[in-house]
Amino acid sequence: MKKVLVLLIVLLMISTAFAEITINGDARVRPRLDQKFDEDGKTSQDLYYMYWARLWVTAKLTEGYYFQTKLATDGPANFIGLMGGGLYGQVDGWTTNAAAHSPNRGVVRFAEAHFGRKTDKYGYSMGVLPMSGLGNPEYDLHFYPTSKSDLPYTILNAASAAGFRGFYKIGESKLNVTLTVDQNTGNREVKDTPRDPYSIFASYDMKLGETKVSPTLIYTTQDKDLPSPLTVGANVGLPKLAGFALSAGGYYTTQPVEDATKYSGPMVHLKAVKPIGPGTFVSWVDWKTIDVDGADDPIATTLLWVMYKYTVYKSEVGTFYLAPTFRRIMQNYGDMEYARNKIELTMHIAFK
Fold first, then answer.
1. How much is the CA Rg of the chain, to the nearest whole Å?
2. How far apart are the C-alpha atoms of 72 and 75, rounded to whole Å?
3. pLDDT for residue 96 is more than 50
């Protein structure tokens, strides 16, 4: 942590001579009641408290050149951990670290670190890039098609990936392409080493009248005997209905490699947002059905997310909001049933 503070001080000292450097960040505490159910109706229930703190440092050079990094913990979704549970607790992929129980503090790392250039016409960046799994449910379908987690890409990948990104505006439309380096496994000096896996993300943002449409594609390529899924689809911004801002997405994934277990299936995403009273109501639902080669039954998964975001305080330099949220994930596979509720209150402060 001392090294990080020294780095921030140095950046601030040199900013007056070389670049415009800004620092912003946020902190969050989230009490959660976690309920799990299986096909026998058995229930496990746990109340715990999650927390995070994150800092963004951005250096803006002239003519659109920039560098940005996010300093955060490596925990799932950048959460530091559970109060009373050390650095990591036993939830959503965390593993217990007994040696960390006493300090109960997070370790700061470069959760993002990328540089490049952005103009009105085009842009590019490279490094550890932000990858919004919350804004792109297609990521969950492509990388974790049968996961029992509600947001597996955001939780397990911490909404970031290493690679290269670019965009180019064509009239009023924009073509976006990202190449991620998923693993560095290949080595020509080592016999039978598999090829490095890469994933290609592409989308094309355009308007058809008052409707925004974004066709999308994700393709992963790696060694011939390993999974190489292809996912295609589209995100659509729909006209408002009864004051609700509506959006939808439809996707289809397929994994054709025989030796890596073939599978395929669709996913539908529907989202609604509306200002209600002093806050904003946000809700979405995802349905996906995966047919696994050789299995008698498909794996059907449903996610329901309902949230009310209430801004307690807002100024030019920051905000504080509360967000009571209900999340439910359900999965059926033949006679096997699984369900999980996350009933939580997010207390979030951000500064800029």
1. 22
2. 9
3. no
**Are the beta carbons of 126 and 165 closer than 8 angstroms?**
yes
Rounded CA separation 23/67 (Å): 12
Q: What is the pLDDT of residue 199?
A: 96
**Does position 100 have pLDDT exceeding 80, yes or no?**
no
Reference 26, options 82, 80, 86; nearest CA is 80
Q: Which domains does the chain have, with CATH numbers?
A: 2-351 (2.40.160.10)
Whether 234 contacts 267, CB under 8 Å: no
Stretch 118-131: mean pLDDT, rounded? 95
Task: Extract the tokens encoding 1.
Answer: 């942590």
Q: CA-CA distance, 288 to 216, in Å (whole number)?
A: 17
- Residues 276, 307 contacting (CB under 8 angstroms): no
Total residues belonging to the chain: 352
Tell me what the mean pLDDT of segment 225-252 comes to: 93
CA gap 162, 113 in Å, rounded: 9
Rounded Cα distance, 262 and 127, in Å: 32
